[in-house]
Please model this.
Amino acid sequence: MTEITADTATATEQLKGRSLFEVGERTRKRHASERRFRLMGLAAVVFSILALAGLMTSILSNGLSSFHQTFITLDVNLDAAKLDKNGNRDPEDVAKITTFTLQPLIKAAMQTKMTENGIAVEGVNANAAFELISKEAPGELRRFILANPDQIGKTVSFDLLAGGRIDGYYKGRVTMASAELDSNVTPGQLVLADKLKQAGILEQRFNWGFFTAPDASDTRPEAAGLGVAILGSAYMMLIVLVLALPIGVAASIYLEEFAPQNRWTDLIEVNIANLAAVPSIVFGILGLAIFINFVGLPQSAPVVGGLVLTLMTLPTIIIATRAALKAVPPSINDAALGIGASKMQAIFHHILPLAAPGILTGTIIGLAQALGETAPLLLIGMVAFVREYPGAPPEGFFDPASALPVQVYNWTQRGDPAFVERASGAIIVLLIFLVIMNAIAILLRRRFERRW
Amino acid sequence: MTPSVIVLIVLGLAAVGYFLGRQRALKTSERDGVKLHSLPVYYGQSVALFAAVPALLLLGAWLFLQPVLLENNITGKIPDSAIPDGGARNLVMVDVRRIAEGLNQLIAQGDVSENGLVDMQADVTDVRARLAEVGVALGSDVSPVVFQAAKEYRSIGLTASFFRNIAVLAVSFGFAFWAWARIQPQLRARNISETFVTALLMGSSLVAILTTVGIVGSLLFESVSFFKMYPAADFFLSTTWNPQFRGGSDLGFLPLLWGTLYVSVVALALAVPLGLMIAIYLAEYAGSTLRSFAKPAIEVLAGIPTIVYGLFALITVGPFLRDWIAQPLGLGSSSSSVMTAGLVMGIMLIPFISSLSDDIINAVPQALRDGSYGLGATKSETIKQVILPAALPGIVGAFLLAASRAIGETMIVVMGAGAAARLDLNPFEAMTTITVKIVSQLTGDTEFASPETLVAFALGLTLFVFTLCLNILALYVVRKYREQYE
Model:
């Protein structure tokens, strides 16, 4: 106590005989520390915004190129003598056509195109020129023939995918120098590609296949698409919506309006609060142990993913719904009860409709979280390589499928650098979905939220 | 009839019941000249509820239990001699299930008739080739015992499904008829249907408890079978993690715990000061223009899925740290490292800390600030010496929640931290965490009898206990704090 008095005494001594407007040494120090503190705060804000900008730039600069793709336009002669020896277009015979028989046709078409346009590069023979085209091309051709057997014998114009390295050359991933060292592409092939581009045979176009095509194997990054993943994610979101919304709303109504104040209710409340904070991977373990091992649901199926994500989304929906129910003023409830409505009628006819916008906003935000969730889906086998589209619901819920975020993870585990581009592109698609969902939630809130 | 068809039929019965119930109520009241106790819809509603709910509950329970009971029944019938050396009983069961499914497909395609199936013997017909035709590929030839078990599995399954359909439809129809038959004007239909709905609402709130029971139950059950195979002392105290798929693995938990804690510490060391400073700046200093721009931008960081952060760590932060810091300083040459995962996770946690602290700082009463200003303190002095001490319990709560999230985070560490289990101090080395190992032990083809797979459940249990303790502690601290001002 004496110390402080002494301290104050010296301070008063110093100030004596000086103008109040004159800034002393101690005040200057304090002001400097104030400025430093303020600057630190600003720096923290700027850092986090820069981090957001860096994240977005990294994803966009890596991923935007996946939305366009290099195609080579060729007129392929679907030689009847080779494809259908009996000449009767019997579907069974046509089904026996292999990609192996189609390769020479594409090779010949490439040669014709090159001679027509007078393109030739030293050291690039017919086989090397054929390698410019994706390994996926014969398969694409086969699917076309199976769908249109009547086209056999005619010359049809196809836009075939160019190989991953050729595509990478126009996206800056492959250069002449790197081609020297690469066993999959030679500088001569790149020169040929440039010439084809000048002749208008090779060109870059918007890549619809990225949104519709299924995944492709390690060696064909150019053909890999998000079709199965988008469908799988959509199925799971449907299951989450159908299960989590009614259960969540029912649970919230019970806890908010009916539950008596006792230990049992406390237990439920603590449970919900804790479930909201359980690591997502634990839900994956739950799905694996209960839904797959115990109940025997199939692996990689959207139904299991949907159930796991439902359990994860429930706390979010319950918390949002309870807040929305609480926000409805008690006078509404009192008025309904006053004119003879039962408690149930007051809730379902008056409170619930008024709380609906808040409930929907919470549900959409919960769905957006579920859409981006990856870890639990890895454990229930959604990482499997799936090329077949799942069937129509409800049977399709049990077919193997992938999911958007899992597809991203899957692609990052592959060797070819072209898959990094695909993964970033898939992230952009995922983020676009999330932005749309959040925008709807914000719009709903702006449009319908009532302040009482 | 598949379960989905049954569900549709039950829903159809409920809809029909609704109209019939409503009609009966109106008719009886008209005939007897008595006023109805409730609105006509409630009579319909009570019939519909009785038609749908018990039947659907029965169907759900049956679908859940049938595979389990069936499996137990068939497993008991396979003699030990039929199990190949080194194989496990549940692997044989996998074959049984697949053969049964293949047989179903054979019959669906019309290749074999029901009677033909009875004559089919594993040692006479080439079952493997026939099943391959319908797309069921088997690793080896089918032994007669397994084939017999598969046939039995299939036939019991078919019978059970038949009885299930009968039972569900009978329950639905029976309850609907009973509810319909008892309708008379004096029946308190509204009370009945409201009691029913209350029970449904209460049932829904039990899902949360069931989920917790499911999590704890499955983790405990599998962990116990892990500790039967692998000594607990070795798991918790050994410092080597080296799983071998031929057996004889070292499954020490300590390197994983070290990696987890190291990554979390790096992340929190970045996120806590930054998040706190952001909250302070936005609450106390920033003008409305900056706030209206910066606050949503930081909230966007919270809405980004973790897989995006994982990709950011993998393709940008990792290579950057390796090329500009680790390699020039000679600290390592790996792009996945504790630093990579920690920094990216720190960025992910910033909005978490800042939004929680923001609420807490705003909850500090204005009178405390005014008092401090009145004594001549500057803003920063007020913040450091008055607001932060007053908000400290809440900030500690936010810190604990962030720590629990850091420990349980999966995708960032899977893609950023690496897979090598190591006890090392160098933050530029790749290390691994509990969550990474759960993912790597449980993805791909797993055999559920080996300790290498089951260890994931023990890891999951420790992770669950860790995060649960942190969450409860945080909840306790925050609640305690709240009481001070209310």
Q: What stands out?
A: Residues 241-481 of chain B form a domain with the MetI-like fold fold (CATH 1.10.3720.10). Residues 341 and 416 of chain B are 5 Å apart (CA to CA).
